[in-house]
Design a protein that fits this description.
Number of helices: 12
CATH architecture of the largest domain: 2-Layer Sandwich
Oligomer: single chain
Pfam families: HTH_31, MLTR_LBD
Structural class: alpha+beta
Protein name: Helix-turn-helix domain-containing protein
Shape: elongated
Strand content: 5-15%
Number of strands: 5
Length: about 270
């Protein structure tokens, strides 16, 4: 088991106030939700009172904090972390690995990837080569960042027909993730990706085109344009940080032409 927090914790009250303000919740609202007095909550934020372990967990629950940040709050308050952080290859994660591999294999001949909270590629099925064959080798050196490989001018970007639309969609997802997590590395990644060139308009809001119900990925594959939509799966009741931060993104054909091309590529009838 690895350490959940690698840096010295900041004062508990400061961290709590930071998260409360990030969530746009007043002291009064949080005190009602957590069933503590506003006066006591104010004292906790200013360091005049020390919260109990249960109170820390209750406040973190009401603020909907990621498990990693709940551990940080506990450490800042002087308590041991509550949630483990096991690497995906740890023995106790064998059932998770088997489940993930089953999902990836069962999704063939369509691409699917597994990423962590910072969009690092953890696993993928063989069909991902449809996308990665166009990516420069230096972008595929571990740790591979899926967003960087997608939007970099030497990555998938030159082959994405609707680059402006898809790029805006991905950056919007990343901004929401930054807002939820407050992760400094994701902030830096968002700034890096925003600087990548794009010669197409980038919509500020996802709006459907004629007949569209999802934001599509239109990918140039040889002489054909393949169209996909994607779904994201997460584990529903995680109590481990690694598991809570795991996402499986699966790409599906959005039309019969794409489905036929993918089956033909895989040698399936």
């Amino acid at each position: 088991m690895t350490s959940a927090v690698a840096h010295p914790p900041r004062p508990f009250g400061e961290l709590l106030r930071q998260w409360r303000e990030r969530r746009r919740v007043s002291q009064l609202e949080l005190s009602i939700q957590a069933e503590v007095s506003t006066r006591h909550l104010s004292f906790v934020e200013t360091g005049r009172s020390t919260p109990s372990r249960n109170m820390v967990l209750q406040l973190a629950e009401q603020l909907d904090l990621p498990l990693r940040e709940r551990n940080r709050l506990l450490l800042a308050a002087g308590y041991a972390p509550a949630y483990s952080e096991n690497s995906l290859d740890a023995p106790q994660m064998s059932a998770v690995r088997d489940a993930v591999r089953q999902v990836l294999t069962g999704h063939e001949p369509y691409p699917a990837v597994v990423v962590d909270r910072r969009w690092h590629l953890l696993d993928a099925n063989a069909s991902l080569a449809l996308f990665t064959d166009t990516v420069a080798p230096h972008l595929l050196k571990p740790p591979v960042n899926v967003l960087r490989a997608s939007l970099h001018p030497e990555g998938m970007a030159p082959h994405i027909v609707n680059l402006g639309e898809w790029r805006a969609h991905l950056l919007s997802r990343l901004r929401r993730q930054v807002e939820i997590s407050g992760d400094a590395e994701l902030v830096a990644l968002a700034a890096e990706l925003a600087d990548y060139p794009c010669d197409q308009p980038e919509p500020e809001v996802d709006l459907p085109g004629p007949g569209e119900i999802v934001v599509p990925l239109r990918f140039q594959y040889g002489d054909a344009v393949l169209t996909f939509f994607s779904t994201v799966a997460t584990f529903g009741t995680p109590l481990d940080i690694t598991l809570a931060e795991l996402s499986i993104e699966s790409f599906y054909p959005a039309d019969a032409q794409t489905a036929d091309a993918l089956r033909a590529r895989a040698g399936k009838p």
